[in-house]
Amino acid sequence: MTSPIPSLKAAMAAAALTVLAAPVLAQDTSPDQLLSAYEAEAGASADLARGQALFTGQHTGGKPDTPSCTTCHTMDPRAKGQARTGKVIEPLAPGANPERFTETAKVEKWFGRNCNSVLGRDCTALEKADLIAWLSSL
Amino acid sequence: MRRFLTPLVLATLAMPAFAEDDYIRPVQHPLTQEECSACHMAYPPSLLPARSWSEIMNTLDDHFGEDASLGEEARAEIEAYLVSAAGDANGRRFRAAPADETPLRITDLPWFNREHKREVSTRMLERAGSMSNCSACHRGAERGYFEDD
Fold first, then answer.
1. Which portions of the sequence form the region Disordered (chain A) (predicted)?
2. Could you give the angle at which helices A125-137 and A48-56 cross, rounded to 10 degrees?
3. pTM over cut 0.90
């Protein structure tokens, strides 16, 4: 016997699956792919120690409220950070948060904003490669 | 009785119209919701007049001390939405600030300070991180409910 109820349930289940399957952000890259692309753009190899120094260092060229990446992301990028507003920032290290560095437009948007906030300028391709290499190693 | 009522009535009049039921219509525009909520709750557009939203959306490179720049297409779309839903949209009168002022911080509006000054202890503010973090205390803030919790 075919009742309308099971087919309705099936349709709802299918709809729910469609929603679940659709990522909020289009994932079009990975930390490794981004690292390779930035290295190619820089014409040089990334360096973990340089990335760590850039991330944890105190800088003076940017905006006074954000002298370091660690101002919001903390010294441990595997842990949650906190924006100056009080809002929680999910971990930045891909090892702790697989969503990180998986969408090119998002990565470029935040490098653009945060390098300017912290350093007062864009990051170079090599600096981006260094940062991703270090964050991915954690 | 009259002496008691007058200050009360004046205080009520000076508050925004929405304050009666503690509901403020939240952002209805998905791109605005997504972009603005990256660093803070996407604040209800009616809390500021159109001129304020335009100023904010045209100074994103220094957004209260941080670079919050957007691509021009997204920036313009979000500005248009905020202006269309602002506190003075559709000919409404925005009463929370004088017409010759362009408030940039909701937290600077006199009613905001009146409502929060006595109620928010130092400990609560520390826990919230900042006055920007509505939902630390107003658990329904994202849905537009600002009743006291």
1. 56-85
2. 90
3. no
